[in-house]
Amino acid sequence: MKAHVVYDSTYGNTKAVADAVVQGLKPLGAAAVSVADFNPATMSPGDLLVLGSPINGWRPTPKITELLTRLGDGKLQGINAAAFDTRVRFFIHGDAARKMTRLLKEGGATIISDPAPFYVRGTEGPLRSGELEKAASWAKTLAAAVRPAP
């Protein structure tokens, strides 16, 4: 079983969260990879797929959305999955992580966590204080929740 942390990042904040998630998933042999470099054929049943995206127009980035479209129709059967987004703390904002979670589930993945938000200061960041520690802690809960392949 392996963990794949796949992200798209505009200003480097989502990549920083992905790297912190990898640190929390070290026991699973995790690696962070840009969505542009991710090969879904490297996944096996029982693996963990963690997707991260900044909120882009109230939703995940087009590259993450395209990946999720390609992974639809049951192609994620047997894969454990979770999603996170980076966002500005504001009274209204999009929810990319919830949308990614829905698409992961529609693709057949087993969702092992609620979507997780990580907050940036301003439009471009940097991340708010404590967010990287929160990401590493969230990753440890993911590692504990992974279900073996049937």
CATH architecture: 3-Layer(aba) Sandwich
Which secondary-structure class do the elements indicate? alpha/beta
Q: What ranges have pLDDT less than 50 throughout 5 or more consecutive residues?
A: none
Task: Just give the CATH class.
Answer: Alpha Beta
How much is the radius of gyration in Å?
A: 14 Å
CATH third-tier fold name: Rossmann fold
Question: How many helices does DSSP assign?
Answer: 4
H-E order: EHEEHEHEEH
CATH superfamily: Flavodoxin domain
Q: What does this 3D model show about the protein?
A:
This protein is an alpha/beta fold. The protein has one domain (3-145): 3-Layer(aba) Sandwich (Rossmann fold). 31% of the residues lie in helices and 21% in strands. The protein has four helices and six strands, in the order βαββαβαββα. Strands 1, 2, 3, 4, 5 and 6 form a six-stranded parallel beta sheet that branches. α1 crosses α4 (131-145). 43% of the residues are buried. The mean pLDDT is 94.
